[in-house]
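USER:
I wish I could look at a protein chain and see how it folds. I am handing you a single protein, as its sequence and its fold in token form. As I understand it, each token names a local backbone shape. I hope you can help me see how the letters and the tokens relate. The protein I mean follows directly.
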Amino acid sequence: MKQTRNIAIFIPHLGCPFRCCFCQQQKISATQHPPSISQVQEIIETALVTIPSESDVEVAFFGGTFTSLPEQLQNDYLECVQPYLKNRNIRGIRLSTRPDAIDINRLEALQQRGVTTIELGVQSLDNEVLRLSGRGYQSAQVVAASEMIHTSGIRLGIQLMVGLPGDNRQRDLETTRRTIALSPAMVRIYPTLIIAGTELEQEFRAGNYEPLSLEEAVEITANMYGLFTRAHIPVIRMGLHPSEELQQSDTVVAGPFHPAFGELVLQKVALEQARCLLKNHLSSQISVQEPILFCPPREYSQLVGPGRINIAALQTEFGLKELKVKSDQTLSSGSMGIGDMHRGITSVLTRERYLASI
């Protein structure tokens, strides 16, 4: 299976008629001005040198509302990618836009110019959350836009946020269920951060908004990840890319920022899966030797957690004097095994079976 690679072109806030309460794209993307056509070509040429030839490559226009750009600029950006499409260096074009910034005629034109994926910046499907966030549309427009994208033959991606004004865990999970019903090909989940210079910063300093803690954001995102994974919808990113600008001390005023947010979510999922596996294993044994957990080598750090925090939590909960973790190449991604030093793996719990049980 080919690995999908994106060549990211950032067009910060360009084309967007709104300024949502949380938005400050220049600081998030570390890009102040949209790139020229020659700069786009340079970015593509530089990236292609480093990308393996067998990869499935898309040029991805992120950060702005592409379909609200002046039509000539849209055409110029799309045109500069055409030679790479003809030479098959690149499979297609990916772009991000708002649910209220597309129509069926525009989608047909985009598809003819090589656009293969459109990611909608949905953020929430709760109308009250959308209103308080200043998004300027309602959930019905998201549904209509998603249906149009499916009809056009373009792949649909959806971007969501947790912790928006008026949001809570129940609303996030309901948004997740409604998003699943839209059948996206992929999802991204971002925690709401208070970025300097935004309306949300003013609300925070006035005491009208309280961001999620890192623990809360990780837990909610882990629940959403579980629902999407159970529905066979890949979550391709969790957390903002830790750009140099975003990590500067005066950029993030407050909120659950962590440079490895997605890894924290996967560690949380792994902890809960191991807890389920241990509970089933220990309850089914009359005399239990010290158990050993097994996982795929690439997922060892997710199971163990930073500073072995996951293992310490499991030892405390189950009263285990010792809990070893070993990697096993025979296990498929997302699977965990349990056993002991004499018999090896005696039981396996796949990620799919675990998620189906909760």
